């Protein structure tokens, strides 16, 4: 009895440890977001790259005519690099394995960071941003896939959501570190301030690379390349049970069977993602959900929040340090209830509630947030706007932030999973880049209607999720196949929960009659990846 309890504890602890270690890739992306928002407030950075000019006679800084364009490109180049990385990651992911591909992304990120840190002209900075972005693109696509292939069905959603949680931790840590740099290390006469901000990214990246060496390979990938004994050993280690146990052997056999079937059918092509009736609707969902996630407007707050807070009339310290710290902390903490709720109320309801909550919050920001408020109206308008920006952040962090990544990783069949995840992730980075490019222009001439546009987008997202997204909570990947069917038209996606439960109940009953006892006792997601 004691040994069984120890095995269960080890399997539980090790599964979470693997997820958090792999999700360090998300931490690096979050750290980058936290950095760039505050680097844009550093005068030495802005004078180095012609975002503003300094007049020593009057000790004043003047914004250049190209300022909005340059800041947009600094963010845009990183995100385009990430989109390219997500597009091509499929090849190393299958050839080298998920683990080595994540590490390859980490190495690319370090090279890009080095270029950012030593940049003396805008071209070098742009190139460094692209290279770092490619690394993050690798990790953003491969990390959720790796976690899905090592997680149990019962906590699969929570473990994949760890990726989003680590993004928020990265944003918070970077905001704290850079707030200290701004407060105590600011030097208007030199450029060490912003170079230190960029250079410190080496520390978490090096820690991630060292930690990844200790992680196992994906058992599914090991089986795919013919390393069956290693695959069995990894399954045993992940579950905390001996490799002779019935549960481990059953899961191992399921992995081998799934891999053999995939090899017999062949890998799905990129074209099939869009023309195959069995998968094109899922591709539509993955691309659309990632597109809609970006149109919440969250990244305008994350990338350019300091400018937004300053426009509301707050002091420089509050705009550059105070509110970014508060918002990043709220973003991080609000992700935790989302990680719990995703396996309680499900993906569909969480996205629906989140969309409505964000829409209401942004509508109220429209009411309170008169940009360029005079000081006498600041207390009445600015505080109200900030409050509902934070409420908006809570809804995003608990719902659309993590859920989209989880949902995308679950809905594709085995032979299309890597490419399907890549297609959805490319959508995320592409629209992230587009919004980041237009954000400075939006902020330069922002008004009530801007918030109303994003509020309308959030309301549309809620309706989209409610009508078009089948629920996947608590389902094995075979059951997800049953929900979508071989011809997943909108009609099937829209069928009621009751009808879905009847169908899945019949499927479970048939499986129970034919499956051995060990398979009925435990079903693991990694067997299906």
TrEMBL record:
Q: Which GO terms describe its cellular component?
A: membrane
Q: Where are the transmembrane segments?
A: 12-36, 70-93, 100-120, 126-148, 160-182, 194-217, 284-305, 325-342, 349-371, 383-407, 448-468
Q: What is the top-level taxon of the source organism?
A: Eukaryota
InterPro entries listed in its UniProt record: MFS_dom, MFS_sugar_transport-like, MFS_Sugar_Transporters, MFS_trans_sf, Sugar/inositol_transpt, Sugar_transporter_CS
- Describe the location of the Major facilitator superfamily (MFS) profile domain by residue ranges: 18-473
Is-annotated flag, keyword Membrane? yes
Q: SUPFAM superfamilies from the entry?
A: MFS general substrate transporter
Identify a single GO molecular function assigned to this protein: carbohydrate:proton symporter activity
Q: How does it sit in the membrane?
A: Multi-pass membrane protein
- What are the protein's UniProt keywords? Membrane, Transmembrane, Transmembrane helix, Transport
Task: List the residue ranges of the region (Disordered).
Answer: 508-529
Q: Which PROSITE patterns match?
A: MFS (PS50850), SUGAR_TRANSPORT_1 (PS00216), SUGAR_TRANSPORT_2 (PS00217)
Subcellular location as annotated = Membrane
> What Gene3D superfamilies does the database record attribute to this sequence?
MFS general substrate transporter like domains
Q: Which family does it belong to?
A: Belongs to the major facilitator superfamily. Sugar transporter (TC 2.A.1.1) family.
Q: What is this protein called?
A: Transporter, major facilitator superfamily superfamily protein
């Amino acid at each position: 009895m004691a040994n069984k309890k120890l095995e269960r504890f080890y399997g539980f602890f090790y599964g979470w440890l693997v997820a958090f270690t792999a999700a360090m890739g998300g931490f690096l992306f979050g750290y980058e977001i936290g950095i760039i928002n505050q680097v844009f407030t550093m005068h030495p950075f802005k004078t180095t790259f012609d975002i503003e000019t300094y007049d020593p006679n009057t000790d004043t800084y003047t914004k250049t005519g190209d300022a909005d364009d340059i800041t947009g490109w600094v963010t845009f180049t990183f995100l385009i690099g990430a989109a390219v990385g997500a597009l091509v990651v499929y090849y190393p992911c299958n050839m080298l394995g998920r683990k080595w591909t994540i590490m390859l992304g980490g190495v690319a990120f370090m090279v890009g960071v080095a270029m950012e840190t030593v940049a003396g002209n805008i071209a070098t900075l742009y190139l460094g941003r692209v290279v770092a972005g490619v690394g993050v693109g690798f990790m953003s696509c491969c990390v959720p896939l790796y976690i899905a292939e090592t997680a149990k069905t019962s906590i699969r959603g929570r473990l994949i959501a760890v990726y989003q949680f680590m993004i928020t931790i990265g944003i918070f840590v970077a905001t704290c570190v850079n707030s200290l740099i701004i407060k105590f290390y600011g030097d208007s006469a030199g450029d060490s301030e912003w170079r230190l901000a960029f250079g410190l990214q080496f520390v978490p990246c090096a820690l991630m690379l060292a930690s990844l060496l200790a992680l196992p390979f994906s058992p599914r990938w090991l089986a795919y390349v013919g390393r069956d004994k290693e695959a069995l050993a990894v399954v045993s280690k992940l579950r905390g049970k001996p490799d002779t146990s019935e549960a481990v052997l059953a899961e191992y056999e399921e992995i081998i069977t799934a891999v053999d079937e995939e090899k017999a059918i062949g890998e799905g092509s990129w074209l099939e993602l869009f023309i195959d009736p069995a998968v094109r609707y899922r591709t539509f969902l993955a691309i659309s959900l990632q597109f809609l996630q970006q149109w919440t407007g969250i990244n305008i707050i994350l990338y350019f929040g300091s400018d937004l807070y300053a426009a509301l009339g707050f002091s420089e310290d509050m705009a550059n340090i105070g509110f970014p710290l508060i918002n990043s902390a709220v973003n991080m903490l609000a992700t935790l209830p989302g990680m719990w709720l995703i396996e309680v109320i499900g993906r569909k309801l969480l996205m629906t509630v989140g969309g409505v909550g964000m829409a209401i919050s942004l509508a109220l920001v429209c009411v309170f947030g008169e940009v360029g408020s005079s000081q006498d109206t600041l207390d009445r308008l600015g505080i109200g706007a900030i409050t509902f920006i934070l409420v908006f952040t809570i809804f995003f962090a608990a719902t659309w932030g993590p859920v989209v990544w989880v949902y995308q990783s679950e809905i594709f069949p085995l032979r299309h999973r890597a490419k399907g995840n890549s297609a959805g992730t490319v959508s995320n980075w592409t629209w992230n880049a587009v919004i980041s490019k237009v954000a400075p222009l939006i902020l330069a001439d922002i008004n009530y209607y801007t918030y109303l546009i994003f509020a309308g987008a959030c309301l549309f997202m809620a309706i989209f999720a409610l009508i078009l997204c089948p629920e996947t909570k608590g389902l094995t990947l075979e059951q997800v196949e049953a929900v979508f069917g071989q011809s997943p038209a909108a009609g099937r996606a829209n069928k009621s929960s009751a009808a879905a439960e009847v169908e899945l109940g019949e499927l479970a009953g048939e499986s129970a009659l034919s499956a051995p006892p060990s398979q009925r006792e435990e079903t693991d997601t990694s067997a299906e990846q």
